[in-house]
Amino acid sequence: MENTLKVERAILNLTQGELAEMIGVSRQTINSIEANRYVPSTVLALKLSAIFKKPVNEFFTLSEED
């Protein structure tokens, strides 16, 4: 899975820590998602969707390996 989380976060001028606090996870979790080392749960993806005001599939996409 690939994502544009870092770009979306920058558009809102949020640090990893600020975004993490908003959705109730650690900064390290945000870092891992941005680096494609961690695939978020559906609940976490929906929380991100609410913050970015975009559908989940606009910032998460399947890669060829998926």
TrEMBL record:
Which UniProt keywords are given for this protein, alphabetically ordered?
DNA-binding
Q: Domain HTH cro/C1-type spans what residues?
A: 5-59
Signal sequence bounds = none
Q: Does the keyword NADP apply?
A: no
InterPro entries noted in UniProt:
Cro/C1-type_HTH, Lambda_DNA-bd_dom_sf
SMART domains of this UniProt entry? HTH_XRE
The protein's GO terms of the molecular function aspect are: DNA binding
* Pfam families in the record: HTH_3 (PF01381)
Q: What is this protein called?
A: Putative transcriptional regulator
- Give the species: Marinirhabdus gelatinilytica
